[in-house]
Amino acid sequence: KNEVEQSPQNLTAQEGEFITINCSYSVGISALHWLQQHPGGGIVSLFMLSSGKKKHGRLIATINIQEKHSSLHITASHPRDSAVYICAVSNSGGGADGLTFGKGTHLIIQP
Amino acid sequence: ETGVTQSPTHLIKTRGQQVTLRCSSQSGHNTVSWYQQALGQGPQFIFQYYREEENGRGNFPPRFSGLQFPNYSSELNVNALELDDSALYLCASSLAVGTLSGRTYNEQFFGPGTRLTVL
Fold it and tell me: Which candidate from A31, A41, A95 shows the least CB-CB separation from B88?
């Protein structure tokens, strides 16, 4: 069983819809990361959080440490939001900070 | 502020050859992590360097090795290339503060990747 599970694997929605992507993890973590990857490979860090909620523009990330669950929300979705969204966790415990990644959610926003 | 850069962008090698990939970390960062992303998969952690020393390693064989230089740039070396080494290789830099028992890592910033094809 993968330590980081994302759902859904694929999501197609219409422009303007509210999008939610979920991430569950099974290990103790020091932080959870939401990343965006476009075709061609470049990865952009969207959020790094260890508690509560963060907001940046139309993106909102929440985490519930007790339930080992995080969600990424996109409000007023737009075709340019189409990308792969990846959840990753740090479980450094003071040592290395190598991330463990989920398999990603492939999001397509249709005009 | 200079972002994370990687070179080369693409590379084709044959089985058994050796390859060196390079990563320049973002200004002010002291930690570099390397990841391998096979087609259609999520990235896998190879290893991390902090202040020129290997800080941790994922489940990769010893033929994957690395270096970090005093300016915190880094190299990934892969010997005896195999077909399954074909992948996108990503590096990410970050700033770590504190001692080993209580080190805090800040956000990782990724480079554009090097796509390696092994024939």
Answer: A41
